[in-house]
Amino acid sequence: MPTWSWIVVVLLALLLLGGIWIYNRLVKLRARVNNGWSQIDVQLRRRYDLIPNLVTTVQGYATHERELFEHVTEARSRAIDANAVPDQAQAENQITRGIRQLFAVAENYPDLKANQNFLALQEELTGTESKIAFARQFYNDQAMLLNTLIGSFPSNVVAKAFGFGPREFFDIEDPVRAPSQVEFPR
Amino acid sequence: MYEQIAANKRKTVLLIFGAIVLLGAVGYVLGLWAGSGIYGLVGAVALAVVLSLGSFFGGDRLVLASTRAREVSQQEQPRLHNIVEGLSIAAGIPKPRVYVIPEQAPNAFATGRNPEHSSVAVTEGLLATMNRVELEGVIGHELSHVVDRDILVGTVVATLVGAVVLISEFFMRSWWWGGFRGRRGGDSGGGGAEAIVFAIGLVLLVLAPIIGQIVRFAVSRQREFLADAQGALLTRYPPGLASALRKIGAASGIPMRSANNATAHLWLSQPSRIQGEGMGPLEKLFSTHPPIEERIRRLEEM
């Protein structure tokens, strides 16, 4: 075989190797994005499960806050029924704000604040809220890496050939950091 | 980050190889003295291999046991568990096992060989003094060590150094108290045994500064800054860790009974064994942490 054909063979092999490398990276990132999404899902479900508990517990003490209870319960069912990502994100934000209001209301009821059940629920919900935030952070970070890879050359060629599409970011509010969280009992 | 992981794996291989060569050499010399260099060499290399395998697979358990750490359940420590789980999600690693150490000084460390086999341990003092954001800062720092495989190097160093320190102390003391000769009585070659014991102790004593240097090479100060930065990237809130470090700095007078030179480099901040006293010459030798003020300053600049 003449020299030029060897060069062609080597170039083709390099091209193939590069393609495989990009493909594997795409698959890995897609798996991470999917894993991130299911983590968000797990934590959101955990919060749906905790809300009725919280409402019942607070209701026992704060009988005058009916409007707030209904508001939170309604936001919860809307979030569960939501199909599109933006709809769900909006409903989740309402839940977050509603729960925060419930905790603020609880400040006015010393008996409630001393209730062991309420304290445990408060820790669970605060923990779940931060886990949602961390899961979203991970998901968005990985989605950004994937989208960048899909959008840039030469990986966009491989992405197109194997049907890798960009992923939507999940935008929800950040949990409140200092100072309100500092006041929470440990 | 990936270079960091690769570098740490390389260092671990180098460390284990170094330990085998070092112990092999010592064994050979001692063997020559006792009559057979080959037996000494084989024995010491076998010991080194066992030590290395042990530190790789069981080092985390050894380190945890040496600090009397106790695994806690979700029910016992809901806040700690929630924070560890949340930050593991953020870091994209499986949730490590959670331990609490019965010490009043606020401090923490992580150990294990990879993210799938890792543990995070915090002291009771840390749980008592830190609020949620500060605890998040501390755990974020520790999980960064897990992600970067610093825990692998750190744990292997801890067990190898721990073994050497233990052996040298054992030999030095048995020479000092003449225990060996006393027990052996009129055994043949009793004097020779004493000389060997003394020699081993002396060799290890001379090796101590070298080992200190090795620890510094393996566990550079730079990685503490790196873990601070990476931890802040996980929590997205640098003031949390800064505030935690300030509290730890303020509580530096509280001694830690379970701290020792072999595990000092693993902790979040350099532990002190003696109340009120600064670092002794030997502690300074094993000092692997940058000053706490410098770490706080860098976090505040982020």
Describe what this molecule looks like in 3D.
The complex is a heterodimer of chains A (about 190) and B (about 300). With about 190 residues, chain A is mostly helical. Chain A has a single domain (about 30-185), classed as de novo design (two linked rop proteins) (Up-down Bundle), CATH 1.20.1440.20. Chain A is built from six helices and no strands. Chain A has helices spanning about 5-60, 65-80, 85-105, 110-115, 115-150, 155-160. In chain A, helix 1 runs antiparallel to helix 2 (about 65-80), helix 1 (about 5-60) runs parallel beside helix 3 (about 85-105) and helix 2 (about 65-80) packs antiparallel against helix 3. In chain A, about 30% of the residues are buried. Chain B has one domain. In chain B, helix 5 crosses helix 9 (about 220-235), helix 6 packs antiparallel against helix 8 (about 190-220) and helix 9 crosses helix 10. Classes of the chains: A mainly alpha (about 190), B alpha+beta (about 300). The interface between A and B is medium-sized, with 25 and 21 residues.
- Report the radius of gyration of chain B as a whole number of Å: 21 Å
Contiguous runs where pLDDT drops below 50 for at least 5 residues of chain A? 177-186
CATH superfamily descriptor of chain A: LemA-like domain
Q: What is the overall number of helices of chain B?
A: 12
**Number of self-contained structural domains of chain B:** 1
Helix/strand/pairing class of chain A, anyone?
Answer: mainly alpha
Approximate shape of chain A? rod-shaped
How are the secondary structure elements laid out?
The complex is a heterodimer of chains A (186) and B (302).
Chain A: H1 3-59, H2 66-81, H3 85-106, H4 110-114, H5 116-151, H6 155-161
Chain B: H1 2-34, H2 37-66, E1 70-71, H3 78-91, E2 97-101, E3 108-114, E4 117-123, H4 124-129, H5 132-147, H6 150-176, H7 179-184, H8 190-218, H9 222-235, H10 238-250, H11 281-285, H12 292-301
Parallel strand pairs in B: 2-4
Antiparallel strand pairs in B: 1-2, 3-4
